[in-house]
Amino acid sequence: EPEVTQTPSHQVTQMGQEVILRCVPISNHLYFYWYRQILGQKVEFLVSFYNNEISEKSEIFDDQFSVERPDGSNFTLKIRSTKLEDSAMYFCASSERTSPQHFGDGTRLSIL
Amino acid sequence: RKEVEQDPGPFNVPEGATVAFNCTYSNSASQSFFWYRQDCRKEPKLLMSVYSSGNEDGRFTAQLNRASQYISLLIRDSKLSDSATYLCVVNKSGYSTLTFGKGTMLLVSP
User: What does each of the 110 residues of chain B score in pLDDT, given as a tens digit?
Assistant: First the structure.
């Protein structure tokens, strides 16, 4: 069964550094998403991306965050200057239409 | 009121038991409904979509009551492998944003 893949599985970064999280969505999917889950809390939506542009974003997705689809397969989330509170699991998801969405196994981001 | 509300549990049941989870949502514009399961520190995995007429997938039955803004999941003949957190998820018509509940933890014991 096709799946969403994410790299790295764990990223440790110093506060204030830039970090890029990578995702390869399922190949025939057109909609791409990033979510995050702080330890012990619920999964929260960050951003959705369709037709090479952001279609929706949450309040969490401020100007420190950006997304890009640099080629036909990768979808990246960049955090420009990380803060301690950015520590979380980051999940990429994709879907053929707006739902249902299939999730990658996540990148655990630890900010020191 | 929280957008998607679930009893956090945990629900402790023996193997073979039937267990039911409920979920309420606050936004009447919600259009699509799902149950996902999440194992500890893993990604959410789609368990089933929830349709207005109710739907069944093997041991799992989902029901939707739009008037009461209420969704349920019934698991029959629980297995040890059903131990997980069950996430109630909704999205609004025309939007791709998924809104997650915090989840209900199920522990199935031998």
Answer: 678 999 999 999 999 999 999 999 998 888 889 999 999 989 999 999 998 888 999 999 999 999 999 999 999 999 999 999 999 999 876 667 899 999 999 999 99
Q: Give the span between the Cα atoms of A77 and A20, in whole angstroms.
A: 6
Distances (CA, A) of A107 to A24, A38, A86, A89, B78: 13, 12, 12, 6, 31
Whether B102 and A41 lie within 8 Å, measured CB to CB: yes
Taking CA atoms, what residue in A is nearest to B6? A42
Q: Which residues contact A107 (CB under 8 A, 6 or more apart)?
A: A6, A7, A8, A9, A10, A11, A21, A89, A90
Report the first-to-last Cα separation within chain B, whole angstroms.
37
Alpha carbons B57 and A33: distance in angstroms, whole number = 27
State the maximum Cα–Cα separation within chain B, in Å, rounded to a whole number: 44
Residues 6+ apart with CB under 8 A from A71: none
Q: Which residues of A42-81 are buried (b: 16+ CB within 10 A; e: fewer)?
A: bbbbbbbbbeeeebebbebbeeebebeeeeeeebebebee
Q: What is the CA radius of gyration of chain B?
A: 13
B-proximal residues of A, 47-76, CB under 8 Å: 48, 50, 55-56, 58
- Take residue A85 and report the two structure tokens written for it: 């509170």
